[in-house]
Write a structure and sequence with these properties.
Length: about 290
């Protein structure tokens, strides 16, 4: 029997719609969020082929030209194409936000596992440190670290990552405390499994699933924090193409009517953050076991 592409596509579409009926609105929220994120990720990867000009080219057209057929998002005060800068700026903000979330998740999950499994004084020390960091407002703490480390992609990534470590730590530690009392963990100890094996083979797989939702939400928050730091002059240097930098440079032209300089970068920041937020919200509902009981 020969494979029919049309039949295969029909089955895939039928299964896709079936998932929508099963989970309801949560499924479509997740799909819309994933579509937004995927579209911007593709734009970032294909930036050299999508952008008509170099983001650094200062001779693309008239200065402060409004959106037109050649420059669909206009030009800035240095005659640079705004659309090209928006396209290449997606690479910077995605790199910083995702790397910050990855770094914070690796550190937070690792320390949460060790703290919850070991207990005792080590758990008290780790919990005290993480609670101290968690007590500070995120933006204020990021500003402090960014001011201390100085501008740069690596430095702002570290500054943003620090504020999310306690979130992963508290989540994973609480679950580890509960899971280590389960019967299958006790059985693993009885057959002679080492603490390392128990931690990474029996406990870690059961806590990692819940961090996916937190990761998605943290990326959304990291996008806003990165843009805010760069807007305040504490994030990336002017030589780096970034949406937050374009906001900072375009704000002084808004009173004179050049609205496009901040409208398009600001809209992209909001859209990307919205995409990750919707993705996280949809996943949180779909992964909720109570949803399947309804």
């Amino acid at each position: 029997m020969r494979f029919s592409p049309a039949a295969g596509l029909g089955k895939l579409l039928q299964r896709f719609m079936g998932q929508g009926k099963k989970y309801g609105m949560e499924w479509w929220v997740m799909i819309i969020g994933a579509t937004i994120v995927l579209a911007i990720v593709i734009m970032a990867f294909c930036a050299p082929y999508i952008a008509p000009f170099s983001p650094y080219d200062q001779n693309t057209g008239p200065q402060l030209s409004p959106p037109n057929n050649i420059h669909i998002m206009g030009t800035d005060n240095l005659q640079r194409d705004v659309w090209s800068r928006v396209v290449f700026g997606s690479q910077t903000i995605l790199r910083v936000a995702v790397l910050a979330a990855v770094l914070s998740s690796v550190v937070g999950i690792t320390f949460g596992l060790i703290s919850g499994f070991a207990g005792g004084n080590l758990d008290r020390i780790f919990s005290l440190i993480m609670d101290s960091v968690y007590s500070f407002p995120g933006l204020i703490l990021a500003i402090a670290f960014a001011a201390m480390l100085g501008p740069g992609v690596v430095n702002i990534t570290l500054a943003v990552a620090v504020i999310y470590i306690p979130t992963y730590f508290r989540l994973v530690r609480g679950q580890t405390l509960a899971i280590k009392e389960e019967l299958y963990v006790e059985a693993a100890k009885a057959i002679g499994a080492t603490n390392r094996v128990i931690l990474w083979k029996y406990i870690f797989p059961n806590v990692i699933a819940t961090t996916v939702v937190v990761f998605s939400m943290n990326v959304a928050d990291a996008i806003m924090i990165e843009a805010a730091l760069t807007y305040l002059g504490l994030g990336l240097p002017p030589s780096v193409v970034d949406w937050g930098m374009d906001l900072a440079m375009g704000k002084k032209y808004l009173p004179s009517g050049q609205w496009w300089l901040i409208t398009f970068p600001g809209a992209m920041i909001s859209l990307l953050a919205l995409g990750f937020t919707m993705l996280g919200e949809g996943l949180s509902e779909i992964l909720n076991p109570r949803l399947l009981e309804r």
